[in-house]
């Protein structure tokens, strides 16, 4: 007897309501479950916390055979099994901590249909005992959690995931395969499909647009960043926030600056200081464990409103009322940014994510990447491939900083989620690009002249001198060195110092120039330098007219007032 599509849909909805107590599926869940129940392989790409587990748990109750879940973290497995049993899904796990008798008991329960959902780590698939069991068991579905671990392109590559494809192939009856991940770049997705051997899978990408988040990007000089942040914090002193910094030292310095400046700023604006206790705590992996735990506890319990942290902060921290996340530096990838910024507004209330960046962030990131620590497990060739891949991730991040497109759209498109936005439309969650107007300025002459000046100075001076020479500075240092005699001296006297500097920095991050490392960084020609002498050379700089500052998200959460 075959069951119609409508009946299957009705059954899965009834199961959702009966076991989980939820009224409706979230986007993507229904389509994935329908495909699985129809025997089609799937790849579900959904962010963490969006409800992937339910997509194999519901089929485990409705399919006739056993569902095996391959999950990389043994430490989480027990929680997952307990959680499933609690709502009435008969679940168990097999891992190395169990005795052989205990394992045999689980196998027997699975064969008797008393276990519907069996969790295993990928390493288990290589053991003879498990293979014997699986060969004789009636397996309807194999769900692979964190499927991106199969891809060498991901950060979390696990070699044991490479055995999953062979394990499936060796089974006498091929079960349906369902792969799930929150990491979704095109390359990783292709790898998952190929390495796991998914057959014509239904690919569902959804849930990446966090419509309660306002995305802001702001280009600021390094020195201006701390002041901007202190002002923002002072204006939002009763809200909870996270500030991400690139280095441990920065977290401590910035926390100190905030704790010193914010009470002053609040006093000037006439606001009462909430209390004399610190507003910000620093958090990074170099702090003693007790201090880290305290910082985390104080933040989660609202004893301090603000944590200034490296990317070590956040994993496993459950705080739903974070109203803003500010990045003091540009992260290395959109994935990293999405994950960190996404810690704002978990309660669904309007919240704000601000990324502060400048051209030298880009230069630093590129440099770190090119000189990145060698991984001994990889050959020279593989290391170069990884570097190239990371450059590609970084380029997408730089693209986010520079784009004039809707930031929600940029992000969801990056994660492979469809959804056209009509021209001129405003995004749902709001973003600075939808609220701003843009203009581009032709800076070809400025760029060409900078390039000539680098040549005039024999590629042996830093950016400060180059800007001074171009603007015709009469500083003693310039005159003493006779730099007022080079042909480009004073050629950009009509252009503001900050514009010359901005164009120079943009040329560095675009590869026309490079800056050497060391105590006295020197500006030299980059790989694309020759393009600047081409008569057809055209170079533009984007400028933005930002909206008036909005006071985000306050009145909507009276509990925080
Ligand atoms: P993921 O595996 O994608 O990280 P989980 O499966 O752990 O996410 O789900 C995250 C949370 O969302 C869980 O508390 C889960 O019960 C809840 N959830 C999942 N699906 C729904 C739904 N359709 N309606 C409401 N809550 C849901």
Your description of this structure?
- The protein is of the alpha/beta class.
- 40% of the residues lie in helices and 15% in strands.
- It contains 20 helices and 17 strands.
- The chain has helices at residues 5-20, 29-37, 54-62, 74-86, 100-111, 128-136, 164-169, 186-196, 222-235, 248-268, 289-300, 334-341, 359-370, 380-402, 407-414, 432-435, 444-456, 463-470, 476-480, 497-509, and strands at 42-45, 66-70, 91-94, 117-120, 139-144, 176-181, 202-205, 213-219, 240-244, 280-283, 306-309, 322-327, 351-357, 437-442, 513-515, 523-525, 540-545.
- The strands form four sheets. Strands 3-4-2-5-6-1-7 form a seven-stranded parallel beta sheet, with helices on both faces. Strands 8-13-12-9-11-10 form a six-stranded parallel beta sheet, sandwiched between helices. Strands 14-17 form a two-stranded antiparallel sheet.
- Helix 5 links the parallel strand 3 and strand 4.
- Helix 2 runs parallel beside helix 3, helix 17 (444-456) crosses helix 18 (463-470) and helix 18 (463-470) packs across helix 20.
- The chain is elongated and about 90 Å long.
- The chain starts with a helix and ends in a 16-residue tail after the last strand.
- Residues 551-561 have low confidence and may be disordered.
């Amino acid at each position: 007897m075959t069951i119609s599509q409508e009946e299957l849909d009705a059954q899965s909805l009834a199961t959702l309501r009966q076991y989980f107590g939820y009224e409706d599926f979230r986007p993507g869940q229904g389509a994935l479950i329908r495909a699985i129940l129809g025997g089609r392989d799937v790849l579900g790409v959904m962010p963490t916390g969006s409800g992937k587990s339910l997509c194999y748990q519901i089929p485990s109750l409705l399919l006739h055979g056993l569902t095996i879940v391959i999950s990389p973290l043994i430490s989480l497995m027990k929680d997952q099994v307990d959680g499933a049993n609690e709502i009435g899904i008969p679940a168990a796990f097999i891992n190395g901590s169990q005795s052989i008798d205990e394992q045999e008991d689980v196998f027997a329960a699975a064969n008797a249909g008393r276990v519907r959902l069996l969790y295993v780590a990928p390493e288990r698939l290589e053991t003879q005992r498990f293979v014997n069991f699986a060969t004789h068991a009636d397996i309807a579905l194999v769900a692979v959690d964190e499927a991106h671990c199969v891809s060498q392109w991901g950060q979390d590559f696990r070699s044991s995931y490479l055995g999953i494809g062979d394990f499936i192939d060796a089974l006498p009856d091929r079960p349906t395969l369902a792969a799930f991940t929150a990491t979704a770049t095109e390359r990783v997705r292709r790898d998952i499909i190929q390495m796991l051997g998914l057959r014509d899978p239904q690919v569902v990408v959804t849930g990446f647009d966090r419509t309660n988040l306002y995305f802001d990007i702001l280009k600021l000089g390094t020195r201006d960043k701390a002041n901007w942040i202190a002002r923002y914090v002072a204006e939002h002193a009763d809200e909870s926030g996270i500030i991400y910094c690139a280095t441990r030292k920065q977290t401590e310095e910035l926390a100190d600056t905030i704790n010193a400046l914010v009470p002053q700023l609040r006093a000037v604006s006439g606001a009462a200081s909430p209390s004399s206790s610190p507003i910000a705590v620093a958090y990074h992996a170099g702090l003693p464990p007790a201090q880290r735990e305290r910082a985390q506890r104080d933040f989660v319990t609202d004893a301090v409103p603000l944590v200034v942290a490296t990317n070590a902060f956040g994993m496993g921290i459950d705080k739903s009322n974070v109203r803003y996340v500010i990045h003091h530096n540009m992260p290395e990838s959109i994935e990293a940014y999405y994950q960190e910024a996404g810690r704002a507004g978990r309660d669904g209330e309007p919240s704000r994510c601000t990324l502060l960046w400048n051209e030298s962030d880009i230069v630093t990131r590129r440099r770190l990447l090119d000189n990145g620590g060698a991984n001994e497990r990889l050959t020279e060739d593989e290391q170069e491939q990884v570097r190239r891949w990371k450059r590609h991730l970084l380029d997408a991040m730089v693209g986010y900083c520079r784009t004039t497109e809707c930031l929600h759209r940029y992000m969801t498109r990056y994660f492979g989620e469809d959804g056209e936005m009509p021209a001129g439309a405003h995004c749902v969650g709001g973003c600075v690009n939808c609220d701003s107007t843009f203009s581009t300025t032709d800076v070809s002459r400025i760029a060409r002249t900078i390039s000539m000046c680098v040549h005039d100075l024999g590629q042996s001076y830093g950016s400060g001198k180059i800007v001074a020479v171009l603007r015709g500075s009469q500083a003693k240092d310039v005159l003493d060195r006779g730099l007022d005699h080079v042909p480009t001296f004073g050629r950009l006297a009509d252009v503001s110092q900050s514009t010359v500097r901005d164009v120079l920095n943009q040329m560095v991050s675009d590869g026309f120039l490079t800056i050497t490392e060391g105590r006295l960084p020197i500006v030299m020609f980059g790989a694309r330098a020759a393009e600047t002498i081409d008569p057809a050379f055209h170079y533009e700089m984007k400028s933005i007219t930002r909206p008036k500052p909005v006071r985000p998200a306050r009145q909507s959460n009276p509990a925080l007032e």
